[in-house]
């Protein structure tokens, strides 16, 4: 059975879009669908198809070797499956440009299995539908669980089933049934996604327990080591109104982590303690008020789940926050309980103080598999012989002068078939990556220099909206940076090149102004 016209091309375009390589997907789609307009064909025999199959198997083997060399634990599928359309492209291209629209089954089995009957041994198959399935599988592994992804899958599957539907059923009835199935499937996918997150979180905690740490389920599964383009939404998640100085804080912190393990940052000893409420139910005093300070008003939707706040470093008081309870921990994380879905709270802050607890042994811990690369860089930079302020300046200059920011991670120029981790390869070979690489590498280099440091995630505040007359923070402004301990307090350090802001802004969709207007 052969796929209908343009279906494979549409699927390849969808795969290229979701995996961040649209040009590759477009070229492959043009090659396959162009066969319908070409009048000439090759006379390919069994031996020719056998060579194409061996080429595909060789590509699959190379894909598997690469995936095993760079993957971490359960991430093997994230490196193996996205490339399946390229792996099997020679085979399907050979079929569509041959004089035969089927390939003998014996091409794929040599020697022929004993369980195959004589009729099965001479059977022929059309590989376009299996290839279509491989493309959908590759797309599914690479997606970010967006509504557009699900809609694209539904369209492609509906297109396929429509052409093969039984004609005795009325078209309206078929469409209605398909719509019901799609709706149920969408709801079920959300449930499965939530179950997956729970399992992943438990898995991360088990890793930490193996190191002897007491952990809370909070963990950050970074994109370190993954291939492809980071895909973040342009939807507005925070609105910022600075007061007093009129300047917003450059960064709003949400979570902090201490233990790094193969692409995961884990929070050690993050138990929360409730903040006593003041005389007013919507005011929360965290630290004594300093002589001078700044303030910012933050509007956001808390939603469900853990309900973590984004606050500036050095926040000492929150007000106009009508929640039942506010809790904090030694890692500077704010969590609220109860209260409305939407909040418009104010945070007063002073960078010279913070609620973060003093550093511990875990703030100097370096993973064993990263130690060799970190020692090599530290020796090259002379970090062990520098004062803290000199080491910090040296590390900042190192990333500014020798690294660049990119939202797309391609194959390494030289594959290392040893135990070199993606983070070590970032430091020693590639020297390009996104903020999670820069923040993680900075934390570990500071620790190598003897300076306690933690990995921090949150948002960068950088875009002023003339229409709203305030700053807006989008999902793509999600950021990672570092805090380090010196002179008796915690300081912020962001070594990601400043070009990351322009790179992220360039990804704005053409319909973003419309969505901004609807979200106000």
What does this structure look like?
There is one protein chain. Helix 1 runs parallel beside helix 8, helix 11 packs parallel to helix 13 and helix 11 crosses helix 14 (435-448). It contains 16 helices and 23 strands. The longest helix is centred in the middle third of the chain and has 40 residues, at 171-210. It has 520 residues and is α+β, with helices and mostly antiparallel strands. The chain is globular. Strands 10-12-15-11-5-21-20 form a seven-stranded antiparallel sheet, with no helix packed on it. A four-stranded antiparallel sheet has the order 6-19-22-23. A three-stranded antiparallel sheet has the order 3-8-7, with helices on one face. It has helices spanning 7-19, 22-34, 46-70, 76-80, 84-87, 89-96, 118-121, 128-142, 147-163, 171-210, 371-381, 388-402, 422-430, 435-448, 499-505, 512-519; strands spanning 103-104, 124-125, 215-221, 228-229, 236-243, 251-257, 259-261, 264-268, 273-274, 284-285, 294-301, 315-319, 325-328, 334-337, 342-349, 404-405, 408-409, 432-433, 453-460, 463-465, 470-474, 478-486, 489-493. A hairpin with a 2-residue loop joins strand 22 (478-486) and strand 23. Residues 70-75, 200-218, 227-231 and 411-418 have low confidence and may be disordered. Helices cover 40% and strands 20% of the residues.
